Amino acid sequence: MPDEPKRIVEAFSQELHAAYHKAGVRSYEAFAARSTKINRAMHSDTGKHTFVSRSAAYKTLTGKRERLPTWDQVAQFVRVFRAEAADRGIAPDSVGTMEQWKAKYEAASARFWAAKKAAASRIPAMAAAVPAAFSDGPQTWWRAYADVVPAWSERYLNHEPLSHRITSYEPVYVPGLLQTPEYAAAVIRLGHGDEPEERIARRVELRMLRQRHLERVGERPCMWAIINEGALRDGPVGGETMRAQIRHLRSLGRHVQVQVIPAGHPAHDATDGPITLLRFPSSQFQDLVFLEHADSALYPSSEEDLAHYLHAVQKLGLAALMPDPSRTLLRRLEAEI
């Protein structure tokens, strides 16, 4: 990771770590226990909560992440710090208010992504290694939805229908290509809740249109999806929507292989964000790596980067349950939610 993004992540982690000590949190185990208690209370009120495990807390507070945590995760840290401080007779505001941490996070996030984009601009563009048919051309199939397509996702949308193998790792959500309409709408509202329902519906329609790529007759692509158990057990949607989504995952055909990383496995929190790799029919075409974030994306394209992310998803696949045990876990999760 370039020095500047690394420095920004470490500086933000140091601020969180200082608040952790100021609140008097005894250990990472105590943090995880308090986080679970807060989640139960929030779940009963809103049906939503954020999963932050002991290992995720350790990585975040010690600056061992490659990227900043999500705002939902930071907000959970702040809730834990304030609750722990109050229990010890320490003024909760001394560890920071939610508004103060939101401002700190937004400032750090802006600096981080500016630094990452500056570093990415020095990497040769993928188009130089890919024939014209695979290059970033004009809007095509998604033209009618251009108003809900951010510029940073155009490259991916142009290439996805050309792929014959899709590998996806998702730590927080079900991959978009495998989402039900109801689940997709709920997830989209998390980031675009202030938009009118018609616009939310257009975003859902676009996501459903993308899924036609997996339903093609003849040269149907294969997909390998690796999903954290936390994304299924503690997903940010209501119970019935989550159960229907899990049923959908169980019903997928043989061309889609779903593997679940158990919540207790160290790899469950080993990667900071989603990773998608597209492979094309001919080996002469370079794979595409897509690292999506809330309001931006990166397309690492050097040979070193491609090897790194391929190795990363392979390690995650080894950590995940095999397809049959994964289906068993999915069945159990559906019954428990």
Low-confidence stretches: 120-139
Sheet with the most strands, sense and barrel status:
6 strands, mixed
| Cα distance spanning the termini | 38 Å
State Rg.
Answer: 20 Å
Pfam family, one: DUF5753
Protein name: DUF5753 domain-containing protein
Domain DUF5753: 154-332
Organism: Actinomadura syzygii
Summarize it.
Helices cover 51% and strands 9% of the residues. The protein is of the alpha/beta class.
Walk me through the structure.
The chain is of the alpha/beta class and 337 residues long. The chain folds into two domains: 3-118, no CATH class; 126-336, no CATH class. Helices cover 51% and strands 9% of the residues. It contains twelve helices and six strands. The protein has helices spanning 3-22, 28-46, 54-61, 71-87, 98-120, 151-159, 181-192, 197-210, 229-233, 239-251, 303-319, 323-336, and strands at 165-170, 222-228, 256-261, 275-279, 288-292, 297-298. It has a six-stranded mixed β-sheet with strand order 3-2-1-4-5-6, sandwiched between helices. Helix 1 runs parallel beside helix 4 and helix 7 packs across helix 8. The longest helix has 23 residues, at 98-120. The protein is globular. It starts with a helix and ends with a helix.
Topology of helices and strands:
Elements: H1 3-22, H2 28-46, H3 54-61, H4 71-87, H5 98-120, H6 151-159, E1 165-170, H7 181-192, H8 197-210, E2 222-228, H9 229-233, H10 239-251, E3 256-261, E4 275-279, E5 288-292, E6 297-298, H11 303-319, H12 323-336
Parallel strand pairs: 1-2, 2-3
Antiparallel strand pairs: 1-4, 4-5, 5-6
